[in-house]
Amino acid sequence: MNRKKIIIIGLSALVVLALLYFFFGRKKEEAVAFETTIPEKGHIAAIITSTGTIQPVDTVAVGTQVSGIIASIYTDYNAQVKKGQLLAELDPTLMQATVDQIKGQLTQSQSNLNYQQINYGRQKELFQVGAISKAAYDLATNSYETAQASVNSIKAQLRSAQQNLSFTKIYSPMDGVVLNRSVSVGQTVAASFNTPTLFSLAKDITKMQVQAKVDEADIGDVQKGDRVTFTVDAYIDQTFEGKVAEIRLQPSTSNNVVTYTTIIETSNADMKLKPGMTATVTIYTKEADDALTVPVSALKLSIEPGQLKPPYQLVQNRVDDTVQNEVWVLKGNQVIKRPVKIGINDNTKVQIIGGVGVGDSVITAILSTKETTTQNMGSNPFLPTPRRRR
Predict the structure, then answer these.
(1) Multidrug resistance protein MdtA-like C-terminal permuted SH3 domain spans which residues (predicted)?
(2) Whole-model pTM?
(3) Alpha-carbon 308 to chain mean position
(4) Are 161 and 221 found together in one domain?
């Protein structure tokens, strides 16, 4: 290949590269466009989410104060019971034998007391006439008083034994429903160190409570009386209502996360909620109806003078240093900074208390577009030429 051909090829390549740069490589001018929104009125709320367990409002563990063998059970799971109703009975044989034994001791002790009383009266008369010594009289007095004390002691033992005998019958302490039965007939229960639980009763299962675990970062916003909604897996399409009744001060720590038990009261008139269900809880810490709102992105937007292209003009009103929030409003070709006072923020939209109105066009984002002309596209030799109509 001679030198002339090499030069021609090189020049051709340069021409091709120049054409490519002319049509494709040039930086196209950017035009500015805005994404705007008009403030809307509606409901807004600040919420806290948590999980909890559904429990009856008032539960009682029914146990026994004496040990023994379960002889009879007169109720079962889910049964409605009345206050004073007999629920179960322990075998009373041993307790009855103890009562009978102490009764025998009491009879013997009472007989001895009668004798000592008679003897004391006789010794007193003899002492008064000087027939016996003071020592003999004191001995009779002591024997009489000892017999009295013995009778009183045995009577107390009898009352205790009779009370233990009565404890073999387990009665309901209140009106309610049986949530759990922990024993069966023939089972031995021992009450040596603690009271064994025989039954768990709920006072009223038409009123339930959710024991929710609220994170320490959120508990400061929760107040008694706050509205609550929650769902359970059994009725995933139904939302239940409640309110915060109590915030317990005792913290709970798990995996270095501190939570506080928040009690939420709710109605269970339709009996759908069952003890032990897991609830997904939403606590409404702040709420407002008919509130003027804009997207949160409007408050995060920042516009510098160099970002705008004609015909738009930046207007920055003098803003007080104490103003912490501002938005940009598009009015014709003017982009105006407006200080605003905000209220509730739900992380999607924010309540505007003052600064903008319903008719204002609030900027939420700046968009840039590439300026191209159909003339340039038509003069590109690398694009097909449109067929002309005749």
Answers:
(1) 322-364
(2) 0.71
(3) 50
(4) no
Residue keyed to tokens 């001995």: 139
- The answer to whether residue 245 sits within a structural domain is yes
Same domain for 247 and 182?
no
Residue at 3 is within a domain? no
How many folded domains does the chain comprise?
Answer: 3
Nearest to 376 by CA among 22, 21, 17, 15: 22
Residue 338 and residue 233 share a domain: no
Of the candidate ranges 30-39, 261-270, 371-380, the one whose mean pLDDT is the lowest: 371-380
Cα-based angle 319, 324, 330 (whole degrees, multiple of 5):
60
CA dist., res. 282 & res. 240, Å (int)? 10
- Model pLDDT for residues 301-356, shown as the tens digit of each residue: 988 877 888 888 888 766 566 668 999 999 998 999 999 999 999 999 999 999 89
Whether 388 has a pLDDT exceeding 60, the answer reads: no
Instruction: Report the pLDDT value the prediction gives residue 373, as an integer from 0 to 100.
Output: 38
Task: Say yes or no: 322 and 217 in one domain.
Answer: no
Q: Could you tell me if 98 and 165 lie in one domain?
A: yes
The CATH number of residue 344's host domain is 2.40.420.20
Q: Give the domain CATH number at 240.
A: 2.40.30.170
Q: Are residues 216 and 324 in the same domain?
A: no
User: Per residue, what are the HEC states of the chain?
Assistant: CCHHHHHHHHHHHHHHHHHHHHHHHCCCCEEEEEEEECCEEEEEEEEEEEEEEEEECCEEEEECCCCEEEEEECCCCCCEECCCCEEEEECCHHHHHHHHHHHHHHHHHHHHHHHHHHHHHHHHHHHHCCCCCHHHHHHHHHHHHHHHHHHHHHHHHHHHHHHHHHCCEEECCCCEEEEEECCCCCCEECCCCCCCEEEEEECCCCEEEEEEEEECCCHHHCCCCCEEEEEEHHHCCCCEEEEEEEEEEEEEEECCEEEEEEEEEEECCCCCCCCCCEEEEEEEEEEEEEEEEEECHHHHCCCCHHHCCCCCEEECCCCCCCCCCEEEEEECCEEEEEECEEEEECCCEEEEEECCCCCCCEEEEEEEEECCCHHHHHCCCCCCCCCCCC
- 305 and 280 assigned to the same domain: no
